Amino acid sequence: MFDGFLKVASASPRVFLGDTEKNSQEIIKMMNSAYKEGVKAMVFPELSITGYTLGDLFFSSALLENALDGLENILDASSKLPGMVVFVGLPIMSKGKIYNTSAVVNNGAVIAFIAKKNIPNYLEYYESRWFTPSPGENEIISTRFGEILMGHKILLQSEREWGAIFSVEICEDLWVPSSNSVEAALNGANVIFNLSASDEIVLKEDRRYQMIRDISERLIVGYVYADASDGESSTDMVFASNLIIGENGTILKKSIFESGKYITADIDLQMLNLQRARRNTYEHRDSLYDILPISLGKADDSKLERAFDRSAFIPQDEETLKRICERATRIQAIGLKRRIEATGSKKLVLGVSGGLDSTLALLSSVKALDFLMRPHSDLICVSMPSFGTTERTKSNAQKLSESLSVDYREIDITETVRSHFRDIGHSEEVFDVVFENAQARERTQILMDIANGVNGLVVGTGDLSELALGFATYNGDHMSSYGINAGIPKSMVRNLVSYYIDESENEMEREALEDILKTPVSPELLPAKDGVISQETENIVGPYELHDFFLYHFVKNGFSPKKIYRIASIAFDGKYEKGEIKKWLIVFLRRFFTQQFKRSALPDGPKVVSVSLSPRSDWRMPSDALKDQWIKEAENL
Asked: At 537, which CATH number?
């Protein structure tokens, strides 16, 4: 399997009502075209070989035989398309009953006939006049293609390297309270194919999209839906070629009102299987399903057409982003509010630097106090300038603090740190890790001691991305009483500060925040050059947007370095060279493994996005886990 991606297609060919020869040829043309694109599984609409709206013509023996002729044409074409599975709809007669089925075609053979279980007979639907529901248990039927298994309790399992298990349902089977796909998924199916002939009325497509989002997320499956085209009869209904490919709550591709078209998408089977493995409440059943083998052939190096968002944590549309920012800031503030109530703290103590992280912590702390209806002066904001502090950042910290009426204090730690250097015999001319960390630890000591004196609680500023990279001084800024930013990735911090700007009516606050947004991210631990920041974080550890991308797919999806590199190269094409992506991926892996000991000793902090590194909940990893194999894989890319 090539990184776990399976290319699937959903098709809605032009329909020639009752002309099985023309319909089969239309299906074959689409099969041949999709095969050239690397499609491994393709689904066509319900009764696609005959057409859906034929009414009493389904009682015609000629139509039933012609449908089998059409299927025979498709089988002949399939024999020339090895490793491709095709689902086509046709009526099958057995023991004096007619069944609405999907033929499963693979390598020139019929693997099974999967019959429709739920036959609608209400409103505009009148199917029970012609069709019998799928038998309760699968049965062998005799056909011109040999003895074939028919029923709805059938799963189709690929070669082990693909890890694909397919299930089929037909139209109404999706709309009933207990969909066939539920039981199939609990028995292992990870991709559901739906052959449909669902008429179009206003806004019905929105209901379909929502249903497929919901069921694909709840069942952790790919869902491939193919609807009939406008070639069907328009006597009482109109069909709109509604094609949908969903995956785990997301619509990957969709199309409507385009007859004679198919859409393709790459479903990530590996991700689906890993997400199921992670969720221990995902029940596994061993029901009476027949599992039949199918062949998808060898995985090839076909190009992924799938797009990947550069920011896994930040949505693209402004309305959703605003809603996420509102929720994130509220989660932070409510978490801190509860901690204040539980501890009975009289004050909050926060180190402010004029940087983004401490700014967000300040704003969230003020919001928590507002929830408690306590004065902002209960927040003590301490600026602690030293060797690397610039006038710009110090001024912004003071300006923002004063605009919010907090208790602002300034304590210059330069001489204290110099005294410490003398105590340990370290030259302040040597700008090494001792030089930097001594400042960070001195600041934390001051904050903790102030908090002790006022029965206060030290609010931490470190964000999720810094925790992933271990870019924090152990027992320095790494430590606090409550890490309010611990669940916020760096790529989101800027959005949250921007959100506070949009919400604020305080001009002084807005001015300070706007300049803070323009300030380079820096720990300011090395001497400034001509009053300007000399130490920019992203020049040291790499771009945070890359690291957040790596973090999301490594922790949440469990992807390998090879797969992360591949999708990052697609997502950041045109922005970063592949060599640069590889370089920073190696940095991420090395730091993520070697810095776990810091995360193992993290203070409490609220989970905000779908990834958390708390050692008490989401991420449990030994501090002495070896990084070598992960690094080696990345180095060999």
From this structure: 3.40.50.620
Residue 283 counted as domain residue: yes
For the stretch 592-606, what's the b/e string if a residue is b when 16 or more beta carbons lie within 10 angstroms of its beta carbon? Answer: bbebbebbeebbebb
Phi-psi region for residue 151, left (φ > 0), alpha (ψ -120 to 50) or beta? left
* Final residue of a structural domain among 259, 293, 327: 293
Three-state DSSP class for residue 458: strand
- Which residue is listed with tokens 């030293």? 386
Query: Are 169 and 194 within 8 A, CB to CB?
Result: yes
Average pLDDT over residues 244-254: 96
- Evaluate whether residue 549 is within a structural domain: yes
Nearest to 385 by CA among 443, 445, 449: 443
Same structural domain, 166 and 131: yes
Q: How far apart are CA 454 and CA 463, in angstroms?
A: 26
* 127 DSSP 8-state letter: G
Do 362 and 232 fall into the same domain?
Answer: no
Secondary structure in 3-state letters for 355-388: CHHHHHHHHHHHHHHHHHCCCHHHEEEEECCCCC
Residues 469 and 579 in one domain: yes
Q: Which residues are catalytic?
A: 46, 116, 171
Query: In percent, how much of the chain has pLDDT > 90?
Result: 81
Let me know: does 455 contact 347? Beta carbons within 8 Å. Answer: yes
pLDDT band at 1 (very low <50, low <70, confident <90, very high): very low
372 pLDDT band (50/70/90 cuts)? Answer: very high
Supply the pLDDT for residue 324.
95
User: Does some domain include residue 307?
Assistant: no
Residue of 607, 624, 465, 457 whose CA lies nearest to 537: 465
Residue-wise pLDDT tens digits, 407-423: 999 999 999 999 999 99
Q: Judge if 345 and 219 occupy the same domain.
A: no
Work out the pLDDT band at 28, boundaries 50, 70, 90. Answer: very high
Strands (E), 95-242: 97-106, 109-115, 139-143, 146-151, 154-157, 165-170, 191-195, 222-226
Predicted confidence at residue 524, as pLDDT, reads 66
Lowest mean pLDDT among 117-131, 158-172, 258-272, 278-292: 117-131
Direct distance between the N- and C-terminal alpha carbons of the chain, in angstroms, rounded to an integer:
17
Determine the 3-state secondary structure of 522 from DSSP: coil
On the 0-12 / 13-18 / 19+ scale of CB atoms within 10 A, 429 is: exposed
- Angle of helix 628-635 relative to helix 561-571, nearest 10 degrees, comes to 40
Question: For 134, how many CA atoms within 13 A lie in the half-sphere containing its CB?
Answer: 25
Count how many domains the chain has.
Answer: 2
DSSP-based three-state secondary structure for 461: coil
pLDDT tens track for 75-100: 999 999 999 999 999 999 999 999 99
Supply the mean pLDDT for the chain: 93
Any idea what the CATH number is for the domain that residue 75 is in? 3.60.110.10
Q: Is residue 89 part of a domain?
A: yes
- Name beta bridge partners: 146: 143
**What is the domain range of residue 630?**
318-635
